[in-house]
Design brief:
Elements: E1 2-6, H1 10-22, E2 27-31, E3 36-38, E4 55-57, H2 58-65, E5 68-70, H3 78-87, E6 89-92, E7 95-98, E8 101-104, E9 123-124, H4 131-142, E10 147-150, H5 154-166, E11 173-177, H6 188-200, E12 204-207, E13 210-215, E14 218-223, E15 226-231, E16 234-237, E17 246-248, E18 253-256, E19 259-266, E20 271-273, H7 283-301, E21 315-319, E22 325-329, E23 335-337, H8 339-356
Parallel strand pairs: 1-2, 1-8, 2-5, 8-19, 9-16, 10-11, 10-16, 11-12, 17-20
Antiparallel strand pairs: 3-4, 6-7, 13-14, 14-15, 18-19, 21-22, 22-23
The chain binds flavin-adenine dinucleotide.
Residues 6-12, 31-34, 40-41, 43-44, 73-75, 105-107, 125, 155, 158, 268-270, 281-284, 286, 318 line the site of flavin-adenine dinucleotide.
Length: 365
C-alpha cells in the first residue's frame, strides 16, 4: 500500500508518525516544497530568534519515521482532488506518484510576494515564514511612530506582546479588532488576564473597529459608520487569510457532495471536518487530527468503518511576551499564568520536539 501526505506541517508529520505505527509496511511519502518543517507556533518569536531556529530539516525526520520526502509544491483545487481520486495518482513535478491514500495537510496558504522596503505595505502575519517577512516585522518593531496590530486572535496578540517587549522606549502600540471581544471561544478569565496585561502596556486598543487601509504614514479604520485615521509607523495584519478549505467528514475523509472521495483525506488548517466537537486552527488540533486521519486510513485499508473524531479540547496556552503566558489544561476554569504557564507552553513545544526526533508521546493523550 502507498500513502502520500501532501504538506509536512503539524498535521502531516503527526500523520506520518502515526502511520509508521498503524501501517508499518506501507510505502510512505511526503510531498512538501520546503527542505524543512517550520514551527509556525513560534513565528511571533522571530523578533528575538533567527528563523533558522524554527526550522527542522525533513531529511533526519524522514529517516526516523521511514518516509520519502519529495520536494515539490502541488496545489489542490476541488476539481483536482476529484481527478487525483479517479486516477489514484498525484502529479509531482514531471512524475506521477501513484497512491492508495492521499492525505492533504497543506495548512493555510503563505505569502508569495516580497514585502517592499520603499513603501512599507501592511505586513501579513503569514509573511513571517520568510526572511523578508521577518525583516519587515523587525522594521515595524523599530519604528518610532505607533505600530498597529490588526486582529486580536491568539496569533495577533502573541505578536503584539512580542512587539511590546522590544519596542524602543515610549514608542506607542495599537490594536485594532473588528469584534467586540477577543478569543470568544476561550474562558472569560483568560480574556480578563489578557486585557489586564494589555492595560499595563498602555496600548491604544480599538475594539469593534474595522481596519480599512494603511499608507502615507496613516492607518484608516471605521467604527459605527465613521471613518478614522491615525498616525502609523506600520501595520501587522493578523486577520487570517480568507481561503477555501477542504470539506471532510468527521473521520477526515474528503467529501464530494455528501459522499467520501475514494482514497482522499485531509487534516489540519486546510480542512474543515464536519460535525466534530471543535475545529480550531491550532497546532494542537492539527496534530490530533493528523493522528486520527492516519487511523482512518488504516481502518479503511483493513475494510473497517472509520471512527468519527470525538474528543474534547485538552487545553489552550498563549504567550504574553518572552516571560509570561496564560492558559488552561483539562479544566477551563483553572487558569494558569506567569512562569507556570510559560513552562506548560515549553512542555508542549518539547513534545513536538520529541516527535521530530522520532518519539511519539502524543499516543498518551
Ligand atoms: C504567529 C503564530 C503563532 C501561533 N501560535 C500557536 C500556538 O501557540 N499554539 C497552537 O496550537 N497554534 C498556534 N498557531 C497556529 C498553528 O501554527 C497552525 O494551526 C498549525 O501550523 C497548522 O498546522 P498544519 O499542519 O495544518 O499546517 P502548517 O503547519 O501550516 O503546515 C503546512 C505544510 O504544508 C506545506 N505546503 C503548503 N502548501 C503546499 C503545497 N501546495 N504542496 C505541498 N506542500 C505544501 C507547507 O510547506 C507546510 O510544511 C500559531 C500560528 C501563528 C502564525
Amino acid at each position: 500500500m502507498r500513502i502520500v501526505v501532501l504538506g509536512g506541517g503539524y498535521a502531516g508529520l503527526a500523520c506520518l508518525a502515526r502511520l509508521a505505527r498503524v501501517l508499518p509496511d506501507a510505502d510512505r511519502h511526503l510531498v512538501d516544497p520546503a527542505r524543512w518543517h517550520l514551527r509556525r507556533t513560534l513565528l511571533h518569536e522571530t523578533l528575538r530568534k533567527p528563523l533558522s531556529d524554527l526550522r527542522a530539516d525533513f531529511a533526519p525526520i524522514a529517516r526516523r519515521w521511514e518516509f520519502r520526502h519529495h520536494i515539490a509544491q502541488v496545489d489542490w483545487t476541488p476539481a483536482r482532488l476529484e481527478e487525483w481520486s479517479r486516477r489514484g495518482e498525484l502529479p509531482v513535478g514531471r512524475r506521477k506518484l501513484a497512491f492508495d491514500a492521499l492525505v492533504v495537510t497543506t495548512g493555510l496558504p503563505g505569502v508569495r510576494s516580497r514585502p517592499s522596503r520603499a513603501r512599507p505595505p501592511p505586513v501579513p502575519l503569514e509573511s513571517l515564514t520568510t526572511g523578508p517577512g521577518v525583516n519587515a516585522f523587525k522594521r515595524l518593531a523599530g519604528t518610532e511612530e505607533r505600530a498597529w496590530v490588526v486582529g486580536a486572535g491568539a496569533s495577533g496578540l502573541q505578536c503584539l506582546f512580542e512587539l511590546a517587549a522590544v519596542r524602543p522606549q515610549g514608542a506607542p502600540l495599537g490594536l485594532v479588532e473588528a469584534a467586540d471581544t477577543i478569543m470568544a471561544a476561550e474562558p472569560e478569565g483568560l480574556r480578563k488576564a489578557v486585557f489586564e496585561r494589555l492595560d499595563g502596556l498602555d496600548i491604544d486598543i480599538r475594539m469593534g473597529t474595522r481596519y480599512e487601509s494603511f499608507g502615507r504614514g496613516r492607518i484608516r479604520m471605521s467604527a459605527d459608520g465613521s471613518s478614522l485615521s491615525e498616525p502609523a509607523g506600520g501595520v501587522l495584519l493578523c486577520t487570517g487569510p480568507k481561503v477555501e478549505r477542504i470539506e471532510a467528514d468527521s473521520a477526515g475523509r474528503v467529501l464530494h457532495g455528501s459522499r467520501p472521495l475514494a482514497g482522499i483525506y485531509a487534516a489540519g488548517d486546510c480542512a474543515r471536518w464536519k460535525d466534530v466537537p471543535f475545529d480550531a486552527a491550532t497546532a494542537q488540533t492539527a496534530v490530533r487530527k493528523g493522528r486520527h486521519v492516519a487511523d482512518t486510513v488504516a481502518r479503511v485499508a483493513e475494510g473497517r468503518s472509520p471512527e468519527p473524531w470525538d474528543v474534547r479540547q485538552l487545553g489552550f496556552f498563549m504567550s504574553l511576551g518572552p516571560h509570561d503566558a496564560v492558559g488552561w489544561v483539562f479544566k477551563r476554569a483553572a487558569l494558569i499564568s506567569g512562569l507556570p504557564a510559560v513552562a506548560a507552553r515549553e512542555a508542549i513545544e518539547a513534545r513536538w520536539d520529541l516527535l521530530l526526533r522520532g518519539l511519539d508521546s502524543f499516543a498518551a493523550f
